[in-house]
Amino acid sequence: MKILVTGGAGYIGSHTCVEAIKAGHEVVVFDNLSNSSPESLNRVEKITGVRPRLIEADLLDRAAVKAAFDEQKYDAVIHFAGLKAVGESVAKPWMYYNNNLVSSLVLFDEMRAHGVFDLVFSSSATVYGDPDKVPLAEDAPLSALNPYGRTKLWIEDMLRDISAADPRWHIILLRYFNPVGAHESGLIGEDPGGIPNNLMPYITQVAVGKLKELTVFGNDYPTRDGTCIRDYIHVCDLAEGHISALNAIDKMPGCIPINLGTGDGFTVLELVHAFEKATGKPLPHKIGPRRPGDSPASYADASRAEKLLGWKTKRGVNEICRDAWNWQSKNPNGYK
Ligand code: NAD
Ligand code: UD1
Question: I need a surface site. Which of 47, 109, 155, 333 has the fewest CB within 10 A?
Fold first, then answer.
C-alpha cells in the first residue's frame, strides 16, 4: 500500500515507518518537525535500507496538505501528528485545539476530496478519563480530564460522525495505552525535549545521569504496592499493531475503536525494579506526593485487537526496559 504518515518523524511514527517498510508498504511522511528531528528518518533508513520521503509541512497549511494528495494517490493515511503534553494543554488550550483539532479537520477534508477513505488514527486510553473499573474494554464510558484528552475524544467524535454520514470511510481508532521502549537496534527511540513528564523517559534519564532521581508520585493508592498501575506497551508491538490495522482495514467499514495494550498492569515500583534488573544498577528514587489527575489503575482489555486484527503484544517488561536503556545509553542526548 502507499501510505501517508502524518507525524511520521516522531516517536511512534518513526517506529511505525520501520514496520510499514518491512511489510512492503511505501511510506511518505508529512511532518512539520515541531517535536521531532529529520535524523529519525535517517535512522529509519539505516534499519530498513529505505529513507521515507519527508514532506516538511504543517497540517494547518491546507495548500500543503492538498498538494500532498494532488501529487499521488494514497491507499491509506495513518494520522499521528499532534501535540501530546497534558500539562502544556492545560496551560495553552487554544494551541492544542488549533494544532490537533483544526489540523485533523483539514486532513480529513482533503482525504475526502481526494477519494482517500482508509484512516488509522492515533487515539489514546486517555479517552477513558478516570475509569471506575479495569480492565478497560472499548465500550467503557468515555470522558476527558484535560484539553489534550478532549482533542482525542473530539477527533474520535468527529470521525464517528464523518463515517456515519458516508459509508465509504473505513476508520480504525487505535487507543494506545502507555507506549514505551525503543527499537532493538538502539537507532530510534523516544526523544522528549526538556524534562520528561512521563515515567519511562524520566527513568532512563536518571539512569544515564542527566537527572538526579525519580520521584514516585504517591504510594498510597489502593494497589498491590500503593503505586499506580499502567499498561506499558513496547513501541515496536504498537507499531506492528498499525500494520495489522492496515491489513484488516478493507474488511472494516465504519469507525471502530480498538485498544492497543498488553492487557497487563505494572506498578511504578515494579517498573523501577524491572529496569534495575535490566540495567544491573540501582535507580535512585524517592516517594513524593500524588500527581493531580492520576488514576490508580489503567490497563487494557486487549481482546478486540486480537479478534479483529489478529494482533497481540509479543514483548514484555524486560524487553521494554532493555530496549529503552539501549536507546538512551547509545543516544544520551537523543538525536542531537
Ligand atoms: P511525537 O511528538 O513524537 O510525534 C508527533 C509528530 O507530529 C511530531 O513529529 C511532530 O513534529 C508532528 N506534528 C505535530 N503537529 C503537527 C502539525 N500541525 N503538522 C505536521 N506535523 C505535526 O509523539 P508520539 O509519542 O509519536 O505520538 C504520536 C501520536 O500518538 C500523537 O497523536 C499522540 O497524541 C498519540 N499518543 C501518544 C502516546 C504516547 O504516550 N506517546 C499515547 C497515546 C497517544
Ligand atoms: C500519561 C498522560 C496521559 C496519556 C498517557 C499515555 C499525563 C498526566 N497523562 O499518563 O494523558 O494518555 O500518558 O501516554 O501526562 N510517574 C511517577 N513519576 C514520574 C512520572 C510518572 O511516579 O516522574 C507515575 C505516574 O504517576 C503514573 C505512572 O508513573 O502513575 C505513569 O505515568 P506517565 O508515564 O506520565 O503515564 P500516564 O500517567 O498513564
Answer: 333
Active site (annotated) includes residue 148: yes
Query: What letter represents residue 257's amino acid?
Result: P
pLDDT tens for 78-98 read 999 999 999 999 999 999 999
Q: Record the pTM.
A: 0.98
Q: Is the CB of 122 under 6 A from ligand 1?
A: yes
How does pLDDT run across 105-135, given as a tens digit for each residue?
Answer: 999 999 999 999 999 999 999 999 999 999 9
Atom 12 (ligand 2) nearest CA = 126
Q: Which CATH number fits domain 2-180+232-262: 3.40.50.970, 1.25.40.10, 3.90.1300.10, 3.40.50.720?
A: 3.40.50.720
Q: Rounded to the nearest 5°, which phi and psi values hold at 152?
A: -65, -45
Q: From the alpha carbon of 202, which atom of ligand 2 is closest?
A: 23
Which residue bears the cell 503534553?
85
Q: Where are the domains of the chain?
A: 2-180+232-262
Most ligand 1 atoms within 8 A of CB, residue of 4, 12, 83, 231 to mutate? 12
Output the residue whose Cα is nearest ligand 2's atom 1. 198
